[in-house]
Amino acid sequence: MPAVAQVQASAPEANNPLGLPESVTLLGESNPNVRTATAVVNGDVITGTDVDQRVALVTAANDQELSAEDMQRLKMQVLRNLIDETLQIQEAAAQEIEVTDAEVEQRYTAVAQQNFGQREGAMNAYLQQIGSSPNSLKRQIRGELAWQRLLRRNVAPFVSVSGEEVNEQLERLEASRGTEEFRVGEIYLSATPESRATVEQNARSIVEQLQQGGSFVAYARQYSEATTAAVGGDLGWVRPGQLPPALAEVVAQMQPGQLVGPVPIPGGLSILYLIDKRQVLTADPRDAVLSLKQISISFEPGTTQAQATSRVESFARGVSQIRGCGDAENAAAALGASIVTNDQIRVRSLPSALQDAILQLQIGQVTPPFGSVEDGIRVLMLCGRDDREQSAGPDFETLMNQIEDERIGKRAQRYLRDLRNDAYIEYN
């Protein structure tokens, strides 16, 4: 009775919505994350081996050694992902949606070729070498295929987009011609007020691993709770107005290759990676295709800094006096330099420091010298440039599909949340 009276005496307030007493004594394990990483989900067992093999898939993409604390957080996140995956497979089976072994094998072979450049036999050996297994990756593939088919049958038919909506969007798109749009990668982690501190700590750990060289795509596939996890967190091309206000403000300030987060948003936290940016319905100069001549000099071992500086200055003077691409071969020979012709080179494939420099060149002009004594000094001469035609933007059907996909993604999150709420899960 005293305990009941204490709870009743604490009326819910804005900062205490559950009306809990200020002093709480837990009558059990105070750290729910410290337990054996196994679970039984509606009767299906997830073993410690399942967790370890899936963890190995994540850590294989990261050359950095994880601390014991980070490894524990990773295991708990992977366990949550495996629970969601199990629920998705179970729901697909309950709805009589079949994913055959042949389909899984076909996708597995494609993953081996595209992501690892290996034959299936080499892929099997690689997975075993890193502490994972073919079965672990194939189960993940089965889960993705099952969930995609379930959404196509049970969610997609009930998502409708009117022609008026699409036409309005096309008009807004035309009105925004010339403004910036961004290709964004996102890792989304859901959080409640009670779990936010723990989730934020986990998100910061993910950011640290990514900053140390971890694969964003691999971490998004394993950690992100958004439907874009299956495609490595890629949101595609979006404009700031299409994003939640908190994310739009951050993305507008980012540069390609930049990682930011965690960013608080309603319902959780997001880690953002800017893959690229461009102007809406405007031809991107970085899509231009170039014909280049690469003129370079190398240095003998033992060359002093003074000798190198003198030769670089002489080389820079010499290449600045070349009379166009037709004179490049003879001029290079006179300078003791080698020359290589490179055709069909997109500007965006060059290092970012060179992109701006080469876009300022006219035919026959060269970039400033770059490189080092160890790797050699070189310049690029522009000998041809084909600019991409101005984009007409997405057509009616493409834009309708994009809007449908966004709505399907939101309903998919609610669908999975309902499956979690109805599930019987036992932890061991």
TrEMBL record:
The keyword RNA-binding is assigned to this record: no
Protein name: Parvulin-like PPIase
Database matches in PANTHER family: CHAPERONE SURA (PTHR47637:SF1)
Signal peptide coordinates: none
SUPFAM superfamilies named among the record's database cross-references: FKBP-like, Triger factor/SurA peptide-binding domain-like
Annotated spans, Disordered: 1-20
Residue ranges of every copy of the PpiC domain listed in the record: 179-276
InterPro entries registered for this protein in UniProt: OMP_Chaperone_SurA, PPIase_dom_sf, PPIase_PpiC, SurA_N, Trigger_fact/SurA_dom_sf
Recorded GO MF terms: peptidyl-prolyl cis-trans isomerase activity
Keywords: Chaperone, Isomerase, Periplasm, Rotamase, Signal
UniProt xrefs under Pfam families: Rotamase, SurA_N
